[in-house]
Design brief:
CATH superfamily of chain A: RNA polymerase II/Efflux pump adaptor protein, barrel-sandwich hybrid domain
CATH topology of chain A: OB fold (Dihydrolipoamide Acetyltransferase, E2P)
Shape of chain B: globular
CATH superfamily of the largest domain in chain B: Probable tRNA modification gtpase trme, domain 1
CATH class of chain A: Mainly Beta
Radius of gyration of chain B: 21 Å
Order of helices and strands of chain B: HEEHEEHEEEHEEHEEEHEHHEEEEEE
Oligomer: heterodimer
Number of domains of chain B: 2
CATH topology of the largest domain in chain B: Gyrase A, domain 2
Distance between the termini of chain A: 32 Å
Order of helices and strands of chain A: EEEHEEEEEHHEH
Shape of chain A: globular
Strand content of chain A: 25-35%
Strand order of the largest sheet of chain A: 1-2-3-9-8-5
Number of helices of chain A: 4
Number of strands of chain A: 9
Distance between the termini of chain B: 49 Å
Largest sheet of chain B: 6 strands, mixed
Largest interface: A-B, 13 and 16 residues
Number of domains of chain A: 1
Helix content of chain B: 10-25%
CATH architecture of chain A: Beta Barrel
Helix content of chain A: 10-25%
Amino acid sequence: MSEVKFSKEHEWITLEGDVATIGITKHATEMLGDIVFAELPEKGSNVEKDGTAGVVESTKAASDVYTPVSGEVVDTNQSIVDDPAKINEDPEGSAWFFKLKIKDTSELNTLMNKEEYDKFAKETSS
Amino acid sequence: MEIKKTSLNKLHQSNNAKFVEFAGYEMPIQYSKGIIEEHKFTRSHSGIFDVSHMGQLFIYGDKSLTEELEKIFPLDLKNLKQNCSKYSFLMNEDAGIYDDLIITKIDEGYLIILNAACKDKDFEILSNLIGSKFKMSLDNTRSLIAIQGPKSVEILNSIINGVDQLNFMTGNWFDSDNKKLFVTRSGYTGEDGFEISISNENAEKFVENLIEKGAQLIGLGARDTLRLEAGLCLYGHELDINKTPVEANLRWAISKSRLSNGGFIGSKKIMKQMLDGASQIRVGIKPEGRLIAREKTKIFDDTDKQIGEITSGTFGPSVNGPIAMGYVNKEFSKVDTKILIEVRGKKHPANVCALPFYKKNYVKGVN
């Protein structure tokens, strides 16, 4: 599996072959608070880089989930829809959101590595 | 304008509060455990709420004050016993609501608890009406602390002996540690509990004492989910100047004896609406599935006609599902009516339901 990359919208992404797994970061879940609702893109649909590809809602507010790369949705994680609290428990592991068959791996080049993201998260949240 | 802070601000900070600005005050929205845990702790144990941003208006006077206040509020104040509280409204001539409030008859006159965002305007309105005849004081030397949940009576009584003898919606002055406190058995969470008016300099120590006895600080986030589950209105959401108490489904708060003769501000409109019904009415709404319908979500019937709007919506931690309140045209206000709510451009099914969403009995009488 490839190195984990991060977007400015607080998504993480890993790549295995041409299939990317995408979720939201731990930092994002800490900012959102208790997550009580998740909506995922439809399997078979196509999503565009930086477009919306889902929604999460906390007790406080709704937030869009964006996709950091373009591709076709090949799988979604129904378990987080059934039990959204899982997103707070394991955001960067079992609580992934969706998998994409991606077209253009170079789109990943614009994303941050862990060190860059941690710095970005720290700067933007203070 | 500089943000105002309550006397518990430092205590909130040391308890890792996340702050928001609310009605010009820096208030804790949550602490480190988060809204759901705080909500559940209140329902199962005892939660402490800093509500010091709310207004504590003392009006001093005797029988003539009662007569003047009856010209303002739709209450039978003449027959209200001393130390008893009532929920009521300050209205305009069209029965539009300036504020909702709790009024308590005390030996020197009345104590009225007002919403933070409305208190200055309320004071101005009441000053213009009766200020020339009676001494009024919006007391900012006192903090207001609520303690709510099943363990609250035991915890508070261990500090202020005798509060367990208060009935629901009554209050009294108590002495604790040589400090004069006004305690009412009331609250806004659907739980048994108390509100304590205490001088600012003693508030922090008092709350630390409550924490030592096992209560925990709870933020405004959980206060909102708790009051929504209890089906209680929040000013600026369910209530505003364009809504009347009848539309808000709060007829119960209008004293029956005042309806025959009126004589309070807004009485003509209230009496007419009591007779004819209101065209829109506040209801409880449960979206199907887990979908949350926030404030301003539009409500439709099955012919695509808009029939109302959501005023508050969230996830109810004790209900374990989404809950909302809103206004619908009266023909859609019956329990179990199917409606559609538009969220992110799509219409989803929801049902009109009875309030409250979560019911626990208040302590009514202890004697």
